[in-house]
Write a structure and sequence with these properties.
The protein is an alpha/beta fold. Helices cover about 40% and strands about 15% of the residues. The protein has a domain of about 230 residues: Rossmann fold (3-Layer(aba) Sandwich). It is globular, with a radius of gyration of 22 Å. The protein starts with about 50 loop residues before the first strand and ends with a strand. The N terminus is likely disordered.
Length: about 500
């Protein structure tokens, strides 16, 4: 999930979704479904074609196939308006030994599955999976090509991303400003998107997955979901247990959160990763930043960037908000830590290019100033539809005070991010099931990473316990999610499970 970075209440890390624990203060309501049932029965097949050459992302990938399917905007009123969902398929490299299709979701909420599949190809999964499975992904409803959420122009997004959020030690005035900022963003999304905001929740997207399964012509849906994609998978298994095939949920979210887990625990995980980055740098005399005291050098640099931002070649300025975003980007993968210290070293000498490049990657901003996807808008929109709450400053201030000693850089931003869902203008037309437990589904493999900065390891433990057929596989290491080149032990276990359904032994922990 993408929640807050540093002193920025709007940015985040990839994937938090919460069951609604409180009544939202919403000024515009639509009917709620009393149960997770729907009357729409999907039918038909998917007509795969070459991707449009005019698409700036998919047009450059000759192997990729594209399609659209039409689904109800609201599955509970299937004769009403419809929306088109965009899909993409990358054929298995070894067609002679193909197992079948594998549906992929890369998280967010709000990540464009089509963009990621087009740009990364089979490298998004272990090689044997790309060899044996047709890789299928989609832009979920509200995302990019599929009835997208629209809130800000590209120029407004640049300004918004560069504006500092709530300080790490907020005053009463800062909390009020954060609430006003949340209201401004909510109003922009309401004006830009309108009532479609009510129909982009995770339950509706899980129903879309069933429509995709039927279109693929398979009896059971094999699925690999990363980060927020684990929420989609868990809800799908709950709604459609008999159609659930070999399902892997990597970097799980907390499907039964408390205030503390929703707005506090992630900040502690991010803080831990940042602290370990600084400790690693200090322990290596070759580290180009900080001279053995990288934390102090970092604080000095951030303060100087607020006083005197670095001019960038494209006319923008690197200030502390953008620099923080660039650093947080590197916490997703242990291999990126080198980029963090190189970027910080460059900025300390007046060169902001690398940190701005990292920040742009986080924001999905292209070199020409356009945004390749709407993830920074879809993320809060989907999160708030799934998790209505209250605009109570006192509530979030108390959470901040509980966690500030454990996450001094992130506690305020994490807590204040809840204010946006308190002022969100719509409620979900199709809320989350009251209990997400996958009852009746085949075994589900949950992969958790002990040093995950975005989805704390404890969340994967809870997901495995919550799902009736959940089975936990642990990666002892750094970074967000574990599948895909970090550990041969993890990848081998995942491949075996997908191909044969054989689970790794209980309590397996992979250290490589």
């Amino acid at each position: 999930m993408r929640r807050a970075t540093g002193n920025r209440a709007r940015l985040a890390i990839v994937t938090l979704l919460a069951v609604a624990l409180a009544t939202g203060a919403c000024d515009e309501l639509v009917s709620e479904s009393p149960s997770p049932t729907a009357t729409f029965i999907p039918s038909g097949t998917i007509d795969w074609q070459s991707c449009p050459v005019t698409d700036p992302v998919t047009g450059g990938n000759p192997e990729l196939l594209c399609a659209t399917i039409t689904v109800p905007r609201d599955y509970l009123t299937p004769d009403g308006p419809t929306i088109d969902l965009a899909l993409a398929l990358l054929p298995a490299a070894d067609q002679a030994n193909k197992v079948g299709p594998l549906l992929l979701n890369f998280g967010g909420p709000g990540a464009s599955g089509i963009n990621i599949l087009a740009e990364s190809g089979r490298g998004v999964v272990p090689a044997e999976i790309g060899n044996r499975f047709d890789l299928v992904s989609w832009d979920p409803r509200g995302v990019n090509r599929s009835a997208p959420v629209e809130c800000l122009t590209d120029i407004e997004m640049d300004d918004w991303a560069a504006t500092p959020g709530i300080p790490s030690r907020p005053t009463a005035t800062d909390w009020t400003a954060a609430l006003n900022d949340a209201q401004w963003f909510a109003d922009k999304c309401k004006a830009g998107t309108g009532e479609m905001l009510a129909y982009i929740g995770t339950t509706a997207s899980a129903r879309d997955m069933e429509s995709i399964r039927v279109g693929l012509g398979v009896a059971k849906l094999d699925y690999l979901g990363f980060s927020y994609g684990t929420a989609l998978g868990a809800v799908y298994a709950t709604l459609f247990p008999t159609a659930t095939g070999h399902m892997i949920l990597d970097g799980a979210v907390d499907m039964a959160p408390t205030d503390e887990s929703e707005y506090g625990e992630q900040g502690v995980s991010i803080q831990g990763a940042l602290n370990r980055l600084f400790a690693w740098c200090d322990a290596d005399t070759a580290c180009p930043f900080g001279g053995g005291n990288s934390r102090a050098a970092f604080d000095k640099l951030m303060n100087s960037l607020d006083d005197q931002p670095i001019e960038l070649e494209d006319g923008r300025k690197l200030n502390s908000a953008i620099a923080w975003t660039g650093v947080v980007m590197t916490l997703y993968n242990r291999d990126y830590w080198d980029y963090a210290v190189q970027g910080l070293a460059g900025a300390s000498e007046g060169d902001g290019y690398l940190l701005s490049l990292l920040a742009d990657a986080y924001l999905d901003r292209a070199e020409d100033g356009t945004y390749k996807s709407n993830i920074m808008e879809a993320f809060p929109a989907i999160s708030c539809i799934d998790a209505p709450t209250t605009p109570s400053i006192a509530r979030y201030k108390a959470i901040y005070e509980k966690f500030v000693s454990k996450a001094p850089d992130f506690a305020a931003g994490q807590a204040a991010s809840g204010l946006l869902c308190g002022v969100w203008p719509y409620k979900s037309a199709d809320p989350l099931p009251a209990l997400v437990n996958g009852a009746g589904a085949a075994p589900i493999l949950v992969v958790g990473t002990t040093g995950d900065p975005a989805t704390p390891y404890a969340w994967s433990q809870r997901m495995a316990d919550l799902l009736e057929s959940g089975h936990l596989l642990t990666y002892v290491g750094e970074g967000h999610t574990g599948v895909g080149g970090k550990s041969a032990c993890i990848d081998d276990a995942v491949i075996t499970f997908l191909v044969s359904g054989t689970l790794p032994p209980e309590e397996t922990r992979c250290n490589d």
